[in-house]
Amino acid sequence: MCKICRAIDPAMDHYCKEGHMKVVPIRTGYIQPANRAAETLFNAVAEVLEELKSATAEYGPFSSPHEGHSVIEEEFDELWDEIKMKHQDKVKMRKEAKQTAAMAIRFMIDCT
Description:
The chain has four helices and two strands. The chain has 112 residues and is mainly alpha-helical. The longest helix is centred in the middle third of the chain and has 24 residues, at 36-59.
């Protein structure tokens, strides 16, 4: 069960329909990735959620869809700048991708 599935129904003890995670009951607090790809996905989503939490705490919600668009565009431009570098830095690209994803989710929450 993925982190989102677990948040919806934490008492379940099986694989989520996507086969991402096997979760034992919540009282044990233990999550086991079903495979390496699931672990990679889980870690990426967890990083984006942490970034979302941090940015929302620091800056608050978007005041309008226009602000949300501008912030997403700025974050994507920073990612694009990293991609265009002659010697790409994967750590920096991951950071910018994480920020772009977090702001897209923030837009979904604040503006729709």
